[in-house]
Design a protein that fits this description.
Layout (H helix, E strand, L loop, with lengths): L1 H10 L7 H30 L6 H26 L3
């Protein structure tokens, strides 16, 4: 039983994320955020200037953009505070 407990404790060692993995994760959150931001802007321009009927797509895209922006900001503050 003692050998099993030692093996289990070795497997549960916390491995902190390296700074490179944190930066990669932030980059992978930022790329879709920028893409969604551009899509939201393009839909808004299409609706406002050209009169296209894309209001629902614009609002869905805006909601996804805001959600991803909050996640990106929270992860950034938690991981990189106090800079």
């Amino acid at each position: 039983m003692k050998a099993f407990e030692q093996q289990a404790s070795k497997n549960n060692i916390d491995r902190p994320l390296t700074i490179q993995k944190k930066h990669l994760t932030m980059f992978l959150l930022g790329v879709p955020l920028l893409i969604l931001l551009l899509i939201t802007g393009a839909l808004g321009i299409a609706m406002g200037i050209y009169g296209k009927q894309v209001f629902m797509l614009h609002m869905i895209s805006a909601g996804l953009t805001i959600t991803l922006a909050f996640v990106h900001a929270i992860v950034g503050v938690i991981w990189f505070y106090p800079f």
